[in-house]
Design brief:
CATH topology of the largest domain: Rossmann fold
Shape: globular
Bound molecules: uridine-5'-diphosphate
Order of helices and strands: EHEHEEHHEHEEHEEEHEEHEHH
Number of helices: 10
Strand order of the largest sheet: 3-2-1-4-5-6-11
Distance between the termini: 38 Å
Helix content: 25-40%
Number of strands: 13
Protein backbone atom coordinates (compact mmCIF):
# COMPACT_ATOMS: atom_id res chain seq x y z
CA UNK A 1 0.00 0.00 0.00
CA UNK A 2 1.41 3.36 -1.05
CA UNK A 3 0.44 6.61 0.63
CA UNK A 4 -0.53 9.10 -2.02
CA UNK A 5 -1.24 12.80 -1.66
CA UNK A 6 -3.63 14.36 -4.19
CA UNK A 7 -3.78 18.16 -4.18
CA UNK A 8 -6.97 19.48 -5.71
CA UNK A 9 -8.42 16.09 -4.83
CA UNK A 10 -11.98 17.40 -4.44
CA UNK A 11 -12.03 18.81 -7.97
CA UNK A 12 -13.25 17.23 -11.18
CA UNK A 13 -10.06 15.37 -12.14
CA UNK A 14 -8.82 15.07 -8.56
CA UNK A 15 -11.90 13.23 -7.31
CA UNK A 16 -11.76 10.74 -10.20
CA UNK A 17 -8.07 10.21 -9.47
CA UNK A 18 -8.69 9.63 -5.73
CA UNK A 19 -11.35 7.09 -6.65
CA UNK A 20 -8.96 5.24 -8.99
CA UNK A 21 -6.15 5.21 -6.41
CA UNK A 22 -8.45 3.94 -3.64
CA UNK A 23 -9.72 1.17 -5.92
CA UNK A 24 -6.09 0.13 -6.47
CA UNK A 25 -5.72 -0.20 -2.66
CA UNK A 26 -3.69 2.92 -1.89
CA UNK A 27 -3.95 5.17 1.10
CA UNK A 28 -5.15 8.54 -0.21
CA UNK A 29 -4.76 11.92 1.43
CA UNK A 30 -6.77 14.56 -0.38
CA UNK A 31 -5.97 18.26 -0.01
CA UNK A 32 -8.27 20.95 -1.34
CA UNK A 33 -9.27 24.49 -0.38
CA UNK A 34 -12.72 23.89 -1.91
CA UNK A 35 -12.47 27.05 -4.03
CA UNK A 36 -13.65 25.16 -7.10
CA UNK A 37 -13.71 21.58 -5.77
CA UNK A 38 -16.57 20.37 -3.59
CA UNK A 39 -17.28 17.99 -0.74
CA UNK A 40 -19.99 16.42 -2.89
CA UNK A 41 -17.29 15.15 -5.28
CA UNK A 42 -15.60 13.12 -2.54
CA UNK A 43 -18.44 12.18 -0.20
CA UNK A 44 -18.93 8.75 -1.76
CA UNK A 45 -15.26 7.77 -1.71
CA UNK A 46 -14.50 4.86 0.55
CA UNK A 47 -11.36 3.05 1.62
CA UNK A 48 -8.31 4.49 3.33
CA UNK A 49 -9.21 8.09 2.54
CA UNK A 50 -8.61 11.33 4.41
CA UNK A 51 -9.59 14.86 3.41
CA UNK A 52 -7.83 18.00 4.65
CA UNK A 53 -9.21 21.43 3.77
CA UNK A 54 -6.11 23.49 3.11
CA UNK A 55 -4.90 26.20 0.74
CA UNK A 56 -1.54 25.22 -0.73
CA UNK A 57 -0.38 28.81 -0.80
CA UNK A 58 0.40 28.11 2.87
CA UNK A 59 3.01 25.46 3.70
CA UNK A 60 1.84 22.18 5.24
CA UNK A 61 3.86 19.36 6.76
CA UNK A 62 2.69 15.96 5.55
CA UNK A 63 4.27 12.66 4.52
CA UNK A 64 3.60 10.85 1.27
CA UNK A 65 5.35 8.50 -1.14
CA UNK A 66 3.68 9.96 -4.22
CA UNK A 67 2.19 13.40 -4.80
CA UNK A 68 -0.25 14.21 -7.59
CA UNK A 69 -0.25 18.00 -7.65
CA UNK A 70 -3.47 19.06 -9.37
CA UNK A 71 -4.56 22.03 -7.24
CA UNK A 72 -5.40 25.13 -9.30
CA UNK A 73 -8.64 26.47 -10.79
CA UNK A 74 -8.53 25.27 -14.41
CA UNK A 75 -11.51 26.90 -16.06
CA UNK A 76 -11.03 30.41 -17.51
CA UNK A 77 -13.99 31.89 -15.56
CA UNK A 78 -12.49 30.68 -12.30
CA UNK A 79 -8.80 31.28 -12.85
CA UNK A 80 -9.53 34.78 -14.18
CA UNK A 81 -11.79 35.74 -11.27
CA UNK A 82 -8.80 36.09 -8.94
CA UNK A 83 -5.74 36.11 -11.21
CA UNK A 84 -3.11 37.00 -8.59
CA UNK A 85 -4.32 34.10 -6.47
CA UNK A 86 -4.01 31.83 -9.55
CA UNK A 87 -0.35 32.87 -9.94
CA UNK A 88 0.27 32.33 -6.21
CA UNK A 89 -1.30 28.88 -6.34
CA UNK A 90 0.99 27.91 -9.20
CA UNK A 91 4.15 29.43 -7.79
CA UNK A 92 3.84 29.14 -3.99
CA UNK A 93 1.63 26.04 -4.08
CA UNK A 94 4.03 24.21 -6.40
CA UNK A 95 7.05 25.27 -4.35
CA UNK A 96 5.38 24.04 -1.17
CA UNK A 97 4.63 20.67 -2.75
CA UNK A 98 8.12 20.39 -4.21
CA UNK A 99 9.53 21.18 -0.77
CA UNK A 100 7.40 18.39 0.66
CA UNK A 101 8.60 16.00 -2.06
CA UNK A 102 12.21 16.95 -1.42
CA UNK A 103 11.89 16.44 2.34
CA UNK A 104 10.04 13.12 2.13
CA UNK A 105 11.68 11.72 -1.02
CA UNK A 106 8.25 11.48 -2.69
CA UNK A 107 7.81 11.30 -6.44
CA UNK A 108 5.71 14.25 -7.63
CA UNK A 109 3.55 14.70 -10.72
CA UNK A 110 2.43 18.15 -11.85
CA UNK A 111 -0.87 18.57 -13.64
CA UNK A 112 0.30 21.05 -16.25
CA UNK A 113 -1.78 22.04 -19.22
CA UNK A 114 -2.08 22.43 -22.97
CA UNK A 115 -2.36 26.14 -22.17
CA UNK A 116 1.44 26.25 -21.93
CA UNK A 117 1.24 26.24 -25.76
CA UNK A 118 -0.91 29.42 -25.70
CA UNK A 119 -2.53 30.18 -29.06
CA UNK A 120 -0.40 27.66 -30.98
CA UNK A 121 1.05 28.38 -34.39
CA UNK A 122 1.58 24.67 -35.10
CA UNK A 123 -0.89 21.83 -34.90
CA UNK A 124 -0.94 19.25 -33.47
CA UNK A 125 1.24 20.40 -30.58
CA UNK A 126 4.11 18.13 -29.57
CA UNK A 127 6.00 18.46 -26.30
CA UNK A 128 8.96 20.24 -27.91
CA UNK A 129 6.78 23.11 -29.24
CA UNK A 130 7.64 26.11 -27.07
CA UNK A 131 4.28 27.79 -27.45
CA UNK A 132 2.85 31.20 -28.23
CA UNK A 133 1.72 32.73 -24.96
CA UNK A 134 0.72 36.34 -24.33
CA UNK A 135 2.23 37.01 -20.93
CA UNK A 136 0.14 40.18 -20.54
CA UNK A 137 -3.22 38.72 -21.52
CA UNK A 138 -6.15 37.57 -19.39
CA UNK A 139 -5.15 33.90 -19.64
CA UNK A 140 -1.54 34.57 -18.59
CA UNK A 141 -2.14 34.02 -14.86
CA UNK A 142 -2.89 30.40 -15.69
CA UNK A 143 -0.69 29.83 -18.79
CA UNK A 144 2.38 31.51 -17.36
CA UNK A 145 1.56 30.16 -13.90
CA UNK A 146 1.75 26.61 -15.25
CA UNK A 147 4.88 27.42 -17.26
CA UNK A 148 6.71 28.58 -14.12
CA UNK A 149 5.32 25.55 -12.27
CA UNK A 150 6.98 23.35 -14.95
CA UNK A 151 10.21 25.35 -14.53
CA UNK A 152 10.10 24.78 -10.77
CA UNK A 153 9.61 21.04 -11.30
CA UNK A 154 12.60 20.88 -13.64
CA UNK A 155 14.84 22.94 -11.34
CA UNK A 156 13.95 20.94 -8.22
CA UNK A 157 14.82 17.88 -10.23
CA UNK A 158 18.15 19.24 -11.52
CA UNK A 159 19.19 21.02 -8.34
CA UNK A 160 17.78 18.73 -5.66
CA UNK A 161 17.23 15.42 -7.45
CA UNK A 162 13.45 15.39 -6.89
CA UNK A 163 11.79 12.66 -8.96
CA UNK A 164 9.34 14.69 -11.07
CA UNK A 165 6.71 13.97 -13.71
CA UNK A 166 4.98 16.61 -15.86
CA UNK A 167 1.61 15.91 -17.50
CA UNK A 168 0.29 18.47 -20.01
CA UNK A 169 -3.43 17.89 -19.81
CA UNK A 170 -5.65 18.82 -22.76
CA UNK A 171 -9.40 19.54 -22.52
CA UNK A 172 -11.05 16.83 -20.46
CA UNK A 173 -14.75 16.25 -19.83
CA UNK A 174 -17.03 13.81 -18.06
CA UNK A 175 -19.27 13.29 -15.04
CA UNK A 176 -18.59 15.63 -12.07
CA UNK A 177 -17.64 18.63 -14.18
CA UNK A 178 -18.92 21.56 -12.15
CA UNK A 179 -22.10 22.97 -13.72
CA UNK A 180 -20.97 26.55 -13.06
CA UNK A 181 -17.52 25.95 -14.50
CA UNK A 182 -18.14 27.86 -17.72
CA UNK A 183 -16.54 25.03 -19.70
CA UNK A 184 -17.86 24.50 -23.16
CA UNK A 185 -18.98 20.89 -22.63
CA UNK A 186 -20.89 21.59 -19.41
CA UNK A 187 -22.30 24.89 -20.75
CA UNK A 188 -23.60 23.27 -23.93
CA UNK A 189 -25.07 20.18 -22.23
CA UNK A 190 -26.85 22.24 -19.57
CA UNK A 191 -28.17 24.73 -22.14
CA UNK A 192 -29.39 21.87 -24.35
CA UNK A 193 -31.15 20.15 -21.42
CA UNK A 194 -32.79 23.40 -20.31
CA UNK A 195 -33.88 24.43 -23.81
CA UNK A 196 -31.66 27.52 -23.66
CA UNK A 197 -29.39 28.81 -26.47
CA UNK A 198 -25.89 27.34 -26.98
CA UNK A 199 -23.53 30.31 -27.36
CA UNK A 200 -20.58 30.05 -29.75
CA UNK A 201 -17.96 32.50 -28.54
CA UNK A 202 -16.29 34.15 -31.50
CA UNK A 203 -18.07 32.15 -34.19
CA UNK A 204 -17.32 28.56 -33.15
CA UNK A 205 -14.69 27.83 -35.82
CA UNK A 206 -12.02 27.39 -33.14
CA UNK A 207 -11.18 23.76 -32.36
CA UNK A 208 -10.53 21.66 -29.29
CA UNK A 209 -9.80 17.96 -28.73
CA UNK A 210 -11.81 16.46 -25.89
CA UNK A 211 -10.61 13.57 -23.75
CA UNK A 212 -12.94 11.49 -21.59
CA UNK A 213 -12.03 11.69 -17.92
CA UNK A 214 -11.41 7.95 -17.36
CA UNK A 215 -8.90 7.86 -20.23
CA UNK A 216 -7.10 10.88 -18.85
CA UNK A 217 -6.87 9.45 -15.33
CA UNK A 218 -5.34 6.26 -16.78
CA UNK A 219 -2.69 8.43 -18.43
CA UNK A 220 -1.86 10.26 -15.20
CA UNK A 221 -1.40 7.00 -13.28
CA UNK A 222 0.73 5.50 -16.08
CA UNK A 223 2.94 8.56 -16.13
CA UNK A 224 3.41 8.45 -12.35
CA UNK A 225 4.43 4.78 -12.57
CA UNK A 226 6.59 5.16 -15.70
CA UNK A 227 10.32 4.58 -15.13
CA UNK A 228 11.67 5.01 -18.66
CA UNK A 229 14.35 7.37 -19.96
CA UNK A 230 11.96 10.24 -20.63
CA UNK A 231 10.37 10.22 -17.18
CA UNK A 232 11.38 13.76 -16.29
CA UNK A 233 10.22 15.18 -19.61
CA UNK A 234 6.70 16.60 -20.18
CA UNK A 235 4.00 14.31 -21.59
CA UNK A 236 0.94 15.47 -23.51
CA UNK A 237 -2.19 13.67 -22.30
CA UNK A 238 -5.39 14.14 -24.26
CA UNK A 239 -7.46 12.78 -27.10
CA UNK A 240 -6.22 13.85 -30.54
CA UNK A 241 -9.71 13.79 -32.10
CA UNK A 242 -10.10 17.49 -32.98
CA UNK A 243 -13.45 19.16 -33.65
CA UNK A 244 -14.72 22.70 -33.99
CA UNK A 245 -16.81 24.20 -31.21
CA UNK A 246 -19.71 24.52 -33.67
CA UNK A 247 -19.55 20.78 -34.43
CA UNK A 248 -19.49 20.10 -30.69
CA UNK A 249 -22.67 22.16 -30.26
CA UNK A 250 -24.39 20.28 -33.10
CA UNK A 251 -23.32 16.90 -31.66
CA UNK A 252 -24.68 17.77 -28.21
CA UNK A 253 -28.00 18.95 -29.68
CA UNK A 254 -28.32 15.67 -31.57
CA UNK A 255 -27.42 13.48 -28.56
CA UNK A 256 -29.79 15.32 -26.20
CA UNK A 257 -32.59 15.60 -28.80
CA UNK A 258 -32.79 19.27 -27.84
CA UNK A 259 -34.23 21.99 -30.04
CA UNK A 260 -32.18 24.76 -28.39
CA UNK A 261 -30.89 27.32 -30.88
CA UNK A 262 -27.16 27.82 -31.58
CA UNK A 263 -26.37 31.54 -31.33
CA UNK A 264 -23.27 33.71 -31.59
CA UNK A 265 -21.63 34.91 -28.38
CA UNK A 266 -18.82 37.40 -27.76
CA UNK A 267 -15.27 36.45 -28.81
CA UNK A 268 -13.03 35.80 -25.80
CA UNK A 269 -9.66 37.61 -25.71
CA UNK A 270 -6.66 35.35 -26.45
CA UNK A 271 -8.96 32.38 -27.09
CA UNK A 272 -6.72 29.76 -28.79
CA UNK A 273 -7.82 29.09 -32.38
CA UNK A 274 -6.76 25.43 -32.40
CA UNK A 275 -5.77 22.86 -29.87
CA UNK A 276 -4.86 19.27 -30.60
CA UNK A 277 -2.35 17.07 -28.77
CA UNK A 278 0.39 15.10 -30.48
CA UNK A 279 0.40 12.06 -28.17
CA UNK A 280 3.15 10.10 -29.96
CA UNK A 281 5.34 10.18 -26.83
CA UNK A 282 2.58 9.05 -24.43
CA UNK A 283 1.47 6.28 -26.80
CA UNK A 284 4.99 4.94 -27.24
CA UNK A 285 6.28 5.29 -23.68
CA UNK A 286 3.15 4.85 -21.55
CA UNK A 287 0.94 2.78 -23.85
CA UNK A 288 -1.57 5.65 -23.52
CA UNK A 289 -4.60 4.96 -25.74
CA UNK A 290 -7.56 7.26 -25.06
CA UNK A 291 -10.20 4.88 -26.41
CA UNK A 292 -13.49 6.56 -25.45
CA UNK A 293 -15.17 7.97 -28.57
CA UNK A 294 -16.49 11.51 -28.17
CA UNK A 295 -20.16 10.57 -28.61
CA UNK A 296 -19.94 7.75 -26.04
CA UNK A 297 -18.25 10.00 -23.50
CA UNK A 298 -20.67 12.86 -24.16
CA UNK A 299 -23.60 10.49 -23.69
CA UNK A 300 -22.31 9.48 -20.24
CA UNK A 301 -21.80 13.15 -19.36
CA UNK A 302 -25.31 14.03 -20.55
CA UNK A 303 -26.73 11.19 -18.42
CA UNK A 304 -24.83 12.58 -15.41
CA UNK A 305 -26.18 16.12 -15.87
CA UNK A 306 -29.71 14.75 -16.46
CA UNK A 307 -29.50 12.83 -13.18
CA UNK A 308 -28.31 16.00 -11.34
CA UNK A 309 -31.19 18.12 -12.66
N1 LIG B 1 -16.87 28.34 -25.59
C1 LIG B 1 -18.05 28.65 -26.27
N2 LIG B 1 -19.21 28.72 -25.55
C2 LIG B 1 -19.27 28.47 -24.22
C3 LIG B 1 -18.07 28.13 -23.52
C4 LIG B 1 -16.88 28.09 -24.25
O1 LIG B 1 -18.05 28.88 -27.48
O2 LIG B 1 -20.39 28.53 -23.65
C5 LIG B 1 -15.61 28.21 -26.36
C6 LIG B 1 -14.43 28.99 -25.78
O3 LIG B 1 -14.42 30.32 -26.29
C7 LIG B 1 -13.26 28.16 -26.28
C8 LIG B 1 -13.80 26.73 -26.31
O4 LIG B 1 -15.23 26.85 -26.30
O5 LIG B 1 -12.90 28.52 -27.59
C9 LIG B 1 -13.36 25.89 -25.12
O6 LIG B 1 -13.63 26.63 -23.94
P1 LIG B 1 -13.39 26.04 -22.49
O7 LIG B 1 -13.60 27.18 -21.53
O8 LIG B 1 -14.19 24.82 -22.29
O9 LIG B 1 -11.87 25.58 -22.46
P2 LIG B 1 -10.48 26.26 -22.92
O10 LIG B 1 -10.74 27.57 -23.57
O11 LIG B 1 -9.70 26.39 -21.68
O12 LIG B 1 -9.94 25.28 -23.89
Amino acid sequence: MTSVLVTGGAGFLGSHLCERLLAAGHRVLCLDNLSTGSRANIERLHGDFEFIEHDLINPIRLDAEKVYHLACPASPVHYQSNPVRTVKTNVLGTMNMLGLARRTGARILLASTSEVYGDPKVSPQSEDYLGNVNQLGPRACYDEGKRIAETLMMEYHREHGVDVRIARIFNTYGPRMAPDDGRVVSNFILAALRGEPLRLYGGGRQSRSFCYVDDLIGGLVSLMEYRGELRHQPFNLGNPHEISIRELAETILRLTGSSSPIVDGPAQPDDPGRRCPDITRARAELGFAPGTALEAGLQRTIDYFRACA
